[in-house]
Amino acid sequence: MRRSLQLSLIVAAIIGIASSAGLAQRPPAIRFGSGGATGPVPEPKDVFGFAPGDDYKLASHEQLLDYFAKLDASSDRISVERIGKSSEGRDMIVAIISSEVNLKNRARYQDIARRLSLARGVSEPEARSLSKEGKVIVWIDGGLHATEVAGAQHTPELAWWLVSSESDEAKRVRDNAILVLMPSMNPDGLDIVRDWYYKNLGTPFETTSPPDIYHHYVGHDNNRDWTMFTQMETQAVARQLYHVWYPQIVYNHHQSGPFPSRIWGPPMKDPVNPNLDPLVVSTINQIGEAMRKRFDEEEKPGYSSHMLYDIWWNGSMRGGPDYHNMAGFLTETSLYRMATPHCYAPEEIPETFGERHKNLPAKIPSVNYTNPWLGGCWPFRKPVEYMLTASRATLDLAAKTKEDFLYNTWRMGTRQIARGERAEGGPFAYVIDPSAQHDQTRMVDFLRTFRIANIEVRQADAPFTAGGKEYPAGTYVLGPSSYRPYVVDLIDEKKFPERRLYPGGPPDPPYDMTGYELSYQMGIKIDRVKEPFALPSKIVTEIASPAGGVTGTGDVYALAPNVNWGVRAINKLLKNNARVSWAPDNRLIVEGVVREDLEKLGAEFGVFFTGLDAVPAGVKPIRSPRIALYRSHRANMDEGWTRWVLEQYGFAYTTVRNPDLRSGDLSKFDVLLFADEADTTILNGAAVGTMPQDYVGGIGMEGAANVRRFVERGGWVVAWDRASDFAILALDLPLRNSVRDTRPEEFFIPGSLLRINTKPAHPLAAGMEASAVAMFADSQAFQVIAPAAEGKQRAMRDVDVYVEYPRQNFMVSGWELGGSRYLAGRVAAAHVKVGEGHAVIMGFRPHWRGQPHNTFKLLFNPLFLSTISGALPVSTAVQ
């Protein structure tokens, strides 16, 4: 609305959002604009100097902010608000667009949406009355994958149309709907990609992608963060979806559709997750068919559906809302590259298209491709226009059937509450006893992620009995709720249905993960109680940190290795020059710290230090590790996730590039980390002519030799997943990757949770549980092999295996083919002495997407141990 820039609280209260430890607090909204009307409604081209979709032109994030501020200042039909900051400090905004009257009464409509979404306490007659009174709330965003450039560019034109148009359709949408429009959920990436594109415009590298990830930490995985909510951007949007607006429709624009289709959209591909309410699926189908019809009406060919993108995984921006009974979906509009136009000759159009087994005709109409696109030119304006058509089709359907969308939200919520009360498709309640946890800080992080998703969490004020078991005061309970699909899906294991591209053929790959439950990834002990019982009356909106402090007497203190937040405490002590040692039983021993200071530190991080009378025998001093993290020019998301996790737990690190490894002095580091990346990429990088000269090549054999010298002279290398192949090659380790050369028909685990057996007494597995869970996402397994000049027995002695895949019952959740033959009983993590140094390899990513807190210690332990002189402090309990 027309107001000067000033702080203003969002009208609807944001209740009960507890961010994870170390993450930013939620900011107030900032509204743009001032006073009365200042002139005509500006078009985007009036502000940008070019129209959205002009070839070779991309508006920057600052230009988008400027346009939306000017649009806000020109009309009472829009309110632009800041909802947070990006990882690099840019403002994130949403534009609320509706009629003037609706915006004045927005608090009422937000409350109606909230009550219908939560459902409890709303009767059917009241739900029908509220649905008639309310306005359908539609979320549309310009995307979050920054190389998919048209999404953000179409949003100012969509806003301008809805604010200024007096067409019947625009009036209907304004009267019956409230649009929550977010220009970009990744403003940092928008500018990273735009700057790279402009820098290379007119050169042979005009259409290349940046050499680094287009989000400060997670790149493309910013669309994989919608259950863990690790990033500031994800948290800000989740607050809008689940605590402020409760939209009935969530539309997430993308731009990477299957060729030659011009836009992919719902209906989705099978399989359907059985935890979803069926009405979510049919509603998404309804929206997709409305879009397809609109494209056919406007004679815009190329709408395809029912391929590539399934409706199983809960973790994407459009997926999470589905488990909140919102119709969350995406479209994938065709992209050539950036804002560069391209023309396609008829002979470039294939006969069929789809996935590996291309079975959808590309040149003749079909149910899923009613109007084929047969080639021609694709200027940048085309994808912008296609996105505008899809967005308007969604808004028009919502406006025409707004009562159905609102009432069905209540219908689904009420149905899910009833299913919980009857213990259908899951238990009556999930009970989490803090005293039963291996690590209470993991439990706190787990429950905090659920609160960000606005899951109702209850806590007992007194002891109680459920399912024939007694629980103490302080126990948490997740009972029946409207968002039950979300809760069940992230706690209970599931089996992905086996799918083949054709009978007897290779597996039909899922869109993303097939098993991903946070309960297993974070190692939470949860009791599933089927019999109804009286739920605790106390509903907690914020999850308190565990108690912490100092117990016992003495001025030497021990910290048990099982608590993740204890790593933060140790790093803070080391930075403050405390004396810390590693004991043979894997406890960390602290000296020279005033007890009162340690009390405060323990309370801060939810850990208890135990007072001792003397320093245990055999301790080895540790210090802050000098960490080098390798970063190639191939935009490695796992490297970004590694940086994020290290920072969250207080580790300092230095990024090293190809020249550093080829000829740099590595002796200033204790440990060199290689994140998941193919050995060929590490060695060779980008080929000459595919990127500007500064970004071609890898570390080469020269770099590999330098890495080996570093280790032989006492350094550590820690590599995981595909990077383990590089470590095996460069360091000549007596190990072989047993799954590297398998075909999908033989071995296929695309993203599943597997059991691992660890040796908790081993220093590299300190703090782990003997049976843990790892995310295996096209990951690795190893066998010990003997070098040609040595025997098998010598090789077995040299390889110190501390994590293995079980010989049987290794599957927890998801889908696997061939695991019994290629994975069962194989090495999952091992330590090998190389000269005076050490190599550690892991077949999986211990910190995958910031989620598997139960395996974080496998990353943290070698970092501390790399600072110890001499042999590792191996307990006699280690075999």
Quick structural gist:
With 879 residues, this protein is an alpha+beta fold. The protein has 26 helices and 41 strands.
Question: What can you see in these coordinates?
Answer:
This protein is 31% helix and 19% strand. The protein has 879 residues and is of the alpha+beta class. Strand 19 (464-466) and strand 20 form a beta hairpin. It is globular. The protein starts with 5 loop residues before the first strand and ends in a 14-residue tail after the last helix. The model is unreliable at 1-37 (pLDDT under 50).
Sequence-ordered SSE layout with sheet pairings:
Layout lengths: L5 E2 L22 E2 L12 H5 L12 H14 L3 E8 L5 E7 L2 H5 L1 H13 L5 H10 L2 E6 L8 H15 L3 H9 E6 L4 H14 L31 H14 L3 E6 L8 E2 L4 E4 L5 H20 L5 E2 L5 E2 L7 H4 L4 E7 L8 E3 L7 E2 L6 E2 L14 E3 L2 H20 L1 H20 L7 E4 L7 H13 L4 E3 L4 E3 L2 E3 L4 E3 L5 H8 L26 H4 L5 E3 L9 E2 L8 E3 L4 E4 L5 H11 L3 E4 L5 E4 L3 H11 L2 E5 L7 E3 L4 E4 L6 H12 L4 E4 L1 H6 L7 E4 L4 H6 L15 H13 L3 E5 L2 H9 L3 E3 L14 E7 L12 E6 L5 E3 L7 H7 E6 L6 E3 L5 H4 L4 E8 L2 E6 L14 H9 L14
Parallel strand pairs: 5-6, 5-7, 7-12, 8-10, 9-11, 24-28, 30-31, 30-32, 32-33, 33-41
Antiparallel strand pairs: 1-2, 2-3, 3-4, 4-6, 8-12, 13-16, 14-15, 17-21, 17-22, 18-21, 18-23, 19-20, 25-27, 25-28, 26-27, 26-29, 34-37, 35-36, 35-38, 35-39, 38-40, 40-41
